[in-house]
Amino acid sequence: FQVKSENKKTIWNTEEVPEGSEFDDTWDPREKPEYEISFKQQVGTEDVFFGMTGKDPSTACCEDIVIKIKLPETKYSDITLDIQDKVLDLRTPKNKLLLHLPYPVNSKEGRARFLSEEEILEVTLRISRKLDFINFS
Residue 32 above 80 pLDDT? Predict the structure, then answer.
């Protein structure tokens, strides 16, 4: 096994380092909060009744990723959220979550809302996909 690189002194290529590894901090004592990932797709009557667009219930046909993070005893002002193309980085005084996302997202088109009664942060991110026979827009 031989690594080809421009600089002979490097021991790995930049492609070998996963995106978001700069956020990893194994020595951080904060606990990881509970979270849930779900997918959301926009469907119309042409999808539900006629199946005209070819969409199915799989994640390949979804437009958004919805991440619900439980943050007990946290105020909205304590939350720091950073979204990259493949990484969600959440930090509070008590919790830290570094989440590698299952699909690349458009980090500029996200929404986040904090449901204070339920102590849940809900983050909705638009999946960034290449156009194919399923995803036309």
Answer: yes
The pTM of the full predicted model, rounded to 2 decimals, is: 0.73
In a domain? residue 74: yes
* CATH number for the domain that contains residue 78: 2.60.40.790
Range of the domain at 119: 35-136
Q: How far apart are CA 30 and CA 71, in angstroms?
A: 12
Does 53 fall in a domain? yes
Q: For the residues 27-56, what does the mean pLDDT come to?
A: 80
